[in-house]
Amino acid sequence: MIEFVINVVLLSFLVLLALTIARTKDLLSSVMLCGLYSLVSAVFFVTMDAVDVAFTEAAVGAGISSLLMLAAMMVTSRYEKANSIQPKAALVVVFLTGVLLFYGLIDMPMFGDPNTPVQQQVSSHYIEESMEEIGIPNMVTSVLASYRSYDTFGETVVIFTAGIGVLALLGGRGAGIRKPSSPAASRSAFPDHLILRVISKLLIPPIMLFALYVQFHGDYGPGGGFQAGVIFAAAIALYAMVFGFERARKRFPLPVIRFVSAVGVLLYGSVGMVSILNGHAFLDYHALSANALSGQHLGIFLVELGVGITVTSVMILLFFTFSERAMQSGGQE
């Protein structure tokens, strides 16, 4: 009964937040409310025992996504323009989408039904055989990095492609090339906030250390390359916001970040190529060692490292690209 009440309260919060986001004209408020929506969603996932999903939702949805949206707001206005959308047309699209979604639910089994094929065939194999076949305690990491490593590789490539797309749209021909520093870019973002600067200096190293912990502890608990990448990138974004974009760009040059983002994808793909060259299937980690479990451990370590490198560099790349375009717009004005 208590669990049912908690679920109803959380779902009510989500509905209330969604309606508020749809109604507000203030883009800054929308960003903050979207971050809050992600946090409530993360709590909801925890109540469903999906801790890894909750961790990802909190880190990506409430964390780096909010920072990226704030950076994107720097190149636009804060408030939505009047009559920029057609409410009636949007309402029709949402209504039709909702009808299709409810129609799709007709053929789906009841939530939590133990007699579904997924519960009887797929899940049972992972639960019973994962430890023996993969040899790591965190079953979620076994699924993501080994059983469905093809899909995870595709997701990593998608993230890398997103970074290329942002560079193509906003970076321009001179993206990442050193330019004369403008006064807006060279000065600190918070020159008079001594407490903020001191607290940031104390927080940034533990945030980076925690990101490394999440990266290399994903075999034993919630975490992995995706979560670690966005946490590490959030630390860099915090540094840029507090101490100035130009100072952060000197510490993390854009050409280096672009190169490193490709290295992560290449590292992941190279593991698969090594498997093929040794006569195994693509991303078959048994080719990496004579011992099956050792090969699984090494393969998961390498591919998770590739994911973490790509996610970190692409998130930093997105933040720097938006910030640099905002600085250029401010200098032109």
Automatic annotation (TrEMBL):
<dbReference type="Pfam" id="PF20501">
    <property type="entry name" value="MbhE"/>
</dbReference>
<feature type="domain" description="MrpA C-terminal/MbhE">
    <location>
        <begin position="116"/>
        <end position="170"/>
    </location>
</feature>
<feature type="transmembrane region" description="Helical">
    <location>
        <begin position="27"/>
        <end position="46"/>
    </location>
</feature>
<keyword id="KW-1133">Transmembrane helix</keyword>
<feature type="transmembrane region" description="Helical">
    <location>
        <begin position="58"/>
        <end position="77"/>
    </location>
</feature>
<dbReference type="InterPro" id="IPR050622">
    <property type="entry name" value="CPA3_antiporter_subunitB"/>
</dbReference>
<dbReference type="InterPro" id="IPR007182">
    <property type="entry name" value="MnhB"/>
</dbReference>
<protein>
    <recommendedName>
        <fullName>Cation:proton antiporter</fullName>
    </recommendedName>
</protein>
<comment type="similarity">
    <text>Belongs to the CPA3 antiporters (TC 2.A.63) subunit B family.</text>
</comment>
<dbReference type="InterPro" id="IPR025383">
    <property type="entry name" value="MrpA_C/MbhD"/>
</dbReference>
<feature type="transmembrane region" description="Helical">
    <location>
        <begin position="226"/>
        <end position="245"/>
    </location>
</feature>
<feature type="domain" description="Na+/H+ antiporter MnhB subunit-related protein">
    <location>
        <begin position="195"/>
        <end position="316"/>
    </location>
</feature>
<feature type="transmembrane region" description="Helical">
    <location>
        <begin position="6"/>
        <end position="22"/>
    </location>
</feature>
<dbReference type="InterPro" id="IPR046806">
    <property type="entry name" value="MrpA_C/MbhE"/>
</dbReference>
<feature type="domain" description="MrpA C-terminal/MbhD">
    <location>
        <begin position="13"/>
        <end position="74"/>
    </location>
</feature>
<dbReference type="Pfam" id="PF13244">
    <property type="entry name" value="MbhD"/>
</dbReference>
<dbReference type="Pfam" id="PF04039">
    <property type="entry name" value="MnhB"/>
</dbReference>
<keyword id="KW-1003">Cell membrane</keyword>
<feature type="transmembrane region" description="Helical">
    <location>
        <begin position="257"/>
        <end position="277"/>
    </location>
</feature>
<feature type="transmembrane region" description="Helical">
    <location>
        <begin position="297"/>
        <end position="320"/>
    </location>
</feature>
<feature type="transmembrane region" description="Helical">
    <location>
        <begin position="153"/>
        <end position="173"/>
    </location>
</feature>
<keyword id="KW-0472">Membrane</keyword>
<keyword id="KW-0812">Transmembrane</keyword>
<feature type="transmembrane region" description="Helical">
    <location>
        <begin position="89"/>
        <end position="106"/>
    </location>
</feature>
<feature type="transmembrane region" description="Helical">
    <location>
        <begin position="194"/>
        <end position="214"/>
    </location>
</feature>
